[in-house]
Write a structure and sequence with these properties.
Elements lengths: L4 E16 L5 H14 L7 E10 L12 E9 L15 E15 L6 H14 L4 E13 L5 E11 L2
Antiparallel strand pairs: 1-3, 1-4, 2-3, 2-5, 4-6, 5-6
Length: 162
Protein backbone atom coordinates (compact mmCIF):
# COMPACT_ATOMS: atom_id res chain seq x y z
CA UNK A 1 0.00 0.00 0.00
CA UNK A 2 1.18 3.47 -0.76
CA UNK A 3 1.69 6.07 1.93
CA UNK A 4 -0.16 9.37 1.76
CA UNK A 5 1.63 12.31 0.20
CA UNK A 6 1.50 15.56 2.14
CA UNK A 7 1.37 18.82 0.21
CA UNK A 8 1.09 22.41 1.37
CA UNK A 9 -1.41 23.99 -1.04
CA UNK A 10 -1.65 27.39 0.66
CA UNK A 11 -4.76 29.40 -0.17
CA UNK A 12 -7.32 28.11 -2.65
CA UNK A 13 -10.49 29.50 -4.20
CA UNK A 14 -12.95 26.83 -5.31
CA UNK A 15 -15.77 27.45 -7.79
CA UNK A 16 -18.52 24.86 -8.07
CA UNK A 17 -22.17 24.02 -8.33
CA UNK A 18 -23.98 22.13 -5.57
CA UNK A 19 -24.19 18.34 -5.73
CA UNK A 20 -25.55 15.69 -3.43
CA UNK A 21 -23.84 12.33 -3.41
CA UNK A 22 -21.62 11.13 -6.22
CA UNK A 23 -22.87 12.62 -9.51
CA UNK A 24 -23.35 10.41 -12.57
CA UNK A 25 -20.93 12.53 -14.61
CA UNK A 26 -18.70 14.77 -12.48
CA UNK A 27 -16.63 15.84 -15.51
CA UNK A 28 -19.77 17.17 -17.23
CA UNK A 29 -20.57 19.21 -14.12
CA UNK A 30 -17.05 20.65 -14.17
CA UNK A 31 -17.74 21.76 -17.76
CA UNK A 32 -20.94 23.48 -16.59
CA UNK A 33 -18.81 25.37 -14.06
CA UNK A 34 -16.33 26.30 -16.81
CA UNK A 35 -19.21 27.68 -18.93
CA UNK A 36 -20.58 29.74 -16.01
CA UNK A 37 -17.17 31.20 -15.22
CA UNK A 38 -16.61 32.05 -18.89
CA UNK A 39 -19.99 33.76 -19.19
CA UNK A 40 -19.73 35.86 -16.00
CA UNK A 41 -16.22 37.33 -15.81
CA UNK A 42 -15.45 39.60 -12.90
CA UNK A 43 -12.50 41.68 -11.92
CA UNK A 44 -9.87 40.26 -11.76
CA UNK A 45 -10.78 37.95 -14.64
CA UNK A 46 -11.40 34.37 -13.47
CA UNK A 47 -9.61 31.26 -14.67
CA UNK A 48 -10.21 27.66 -13.65
CA UNK A 49 -7.02 25.82 -12.73
CA UNK A 50 -6.27 22.23 -11.90
CA UNK A 51 -8.40 19.13 -12.30
CA UNK A 52 -12.15 18.70 -11.96
CA UNK A 53 -12.97 18.03 -8.30
CA UNK A 54 -15.78 17.19 -5.96
CA UNK A 55 -15.46 19.11 -2.70
CA UNK A 56 -17.47 17.69 0.19
CA UNK A 57 -18.35 19.66 3.29
CA UNK A 58 -18.44 16.81 5.84
CA UNK A 59 -16.53 13.60 6.31
CA UNK A 60 -17.98 10.58 4.49
CA UNK A 61 -18.74 8.82 7.76
CA UNK A 62 -21.33 11.47 8.69
CA UNK A 63 -23.81 10.21 6.07
CA UNK A 64 -24.16 7.54 3.37
CA UNK A 65 -22.65 8.49 -0.03
CA UNK A 66 -26.05 9.36 -1.52
CA UNK A 67 -26.39 12.18 1.07
CA UNK A 68 -22.93 13.77 0.83
CA UNK A 69 -23.28 17.52 0.29
CA UNK A 70 -20.68 19.22 -1.80
CA UNK A 71 -19.63 21.13 -4.88
CA UNK A 72 -18.53 19.95 -8.31
CA UNK A 73 -16.05 22.26 -10.00
CA UNK A 74 -12.44 23.34 -9.92
CA UNK A 75 -9.95 25.64 -8.25
CA UNK A 76 -10.15 29.19 -9.58
CA UNK A 77 -8.15 32.37 -9.71
CA UNK A 78 -9.86 35.75 -10.03
CA UNK A 79 -13.57 36.25 -9.42
CA UNK A 80 -16.89 35.97 -11.22
CA UNK A 81 -19.71 38.49 -11.09
CA UNK A 82 -22.10 37.93 -8.18
CA UNK A 83 -25.14 35.86 -9.07
CA UNK A 84 -23.42 33.81 -11.78
CA UNK A 85 -25.58 30.86 -12.74
CA UNK A 86 -26.00 28.21 -15.43
CA UNK A 87 -28.85 28.38 -17.94
CA UNK A 88 -30.78 25.83 -15.87
CA UNK A 89 -30.57 28.14 -12.81
CA UNK A 90 -27.84 26.34 -10.87
CA UNK A 91 -25.88 29.02 -9.02
CA UNK A 92 -22.13 29.10 -8.93
CA UNK A 93 -20.72 29.07 -5.43
CA UNK A 94 -17.22 30.38 -4.75
CA UNK A 95 -15.48 29.49 -1.50
CA UNK A 96 -12.07 30.51 -0.23
CA UNK A 97 -9.90 28.21 1.86
CA UNK A 98 -6.78 29.32 3.73
CA UNK A 99 -3.57 27.52 4.69
CA UNK A 100 -4.48 24.19 3.11
CA UNK A 101 -2.35 21.17 3.82
CA UNK A 102 -3.53 18.13 1.85
CA UNK A 103 -2.96 14.48 2.66
CA UNK A 104 -3.52 12.58 -0.60
CA UNK A 105 -3.98 8.98 -1.73
CA UNK A 106 -4.99 7.55 -5.10
CA UNK A 107 -8.39 5.86 -5.10
CA UNK A 108 -8.70 2.80 -7.32
CA UNK A 109 -12.05 1.42 -6.21
CA UNK A 110 -15.70 2.28 -6.78
CA UNK A 111 -17.09 5.66 -5.72
CA UNK A 112 -19.08 3.89 -3.00
CA UNK A 113 -15.72 2.97 -1.41
CA UNK A 114 -14.36 6.53 -1.20
CA UNK A 115 -15.02 6.47 2.53
CA UNK A 116 -12.38 3.76 3.00
CA UNK A 117 -9.70 5.85 1.31
CA UNK A 118 -10.83 8.87 3.35
CA UNK A 119 -10.57 6.75 6.53
CA UNK A 120 -6.98 5.67 5.66
CA UNK A 121 -6.03 9.32 5.22
CA UNK A 122 -7.83 10.41 8.39
CA UNK A 123 -6.12 7.67 10.39
CA UNK A 124 -2.68 8.54 8.99
CA UNK A 125 -3.16 12.24 9.74
CA UNK A 126 -4.42 11.45 13.25
CA UNK A 127 -1.45 9.16 13.92
CA UNK A 128 0.81 12.08 12.95
CA UNK A 129 -0.98 14.29 15.50
CA UNK A 130 -2.84 16.36 12.90
CA UNK A 131 -6.44 17.53 13.31
CA UNK A 132 -8.73 17.16 10.28
CA UNK A 133 -10.63 20.04 8.78
CA UNK A 134 -14.33 19.26 8.17
CA UNK A 135 -14.06 19.10 4.36
CA UNK A 136 -12.34 16.86 1.82
CA UNK A 137 -12.14 16.54 -1.94
CA UNK A 138 -11.89 14.04 -4.75
CA UNK A 139 -9.77 15.13 -7.75
CA UNK A 140 -10.27 13.59 -11.19
CA UNK A 141 -6.93 13.83 -12.98
CA UNK A 142 -5.51 12.40 -16.20
CA UNK A 143 -1.88 11.35 -16.46
CA UNK A 144 -0.15 10.84 -19.79
CA UNK A 145 1.44 7.42 -20.17
CA UNK A 146 4.68 6.77 -22.09
CA UNK A 147 2.65 5.71 -25.16
CA UNK A 148 0.73 9.02 -25.14
CA UNK A 149 -2.55 7.61 -23.85
CA UNK A 150 -4.30 9.20 -20.89
CA UNK A 151 -4.76 7.28 -17.66
CA UNK A 152 -7.59 8.58 -15.47
CA UNK A 153 -6.53 8.90 -11.83
CA UNK A 154 -8.80 9.60 -8.89
CA UNK A 155 -7.24 11.11 -5.78
CA UNK A 156 -8.82 11.61 -2.37
CA UNK A 157 -7.56 14.48 -0.24
CA UNK A 158 -8.20 15.32 3.38
CA UNK A 159 -7.12 18.66 4.80
CA UNK A 160 -5.52 19.19 8.19
CA UNK A 161 -5.03 22.18 10.43
CA UNK A 162 -1.68 23.92 9.88
Amino acid sequence: MTDPTVTRLGNLRFAGIPVTGWPADPLALAEVVRAIVGAHPGDPAPALIGPACLWYSHGPEDAPPARWDGLAGSAMTGMVRPGAAALDGRRLLVEDYRNLIAWTLPHRDAAADLGRTWRRLADAAGAAGRRLRPYWRVCLRARTLADGNLLPVTEVQVFVEP
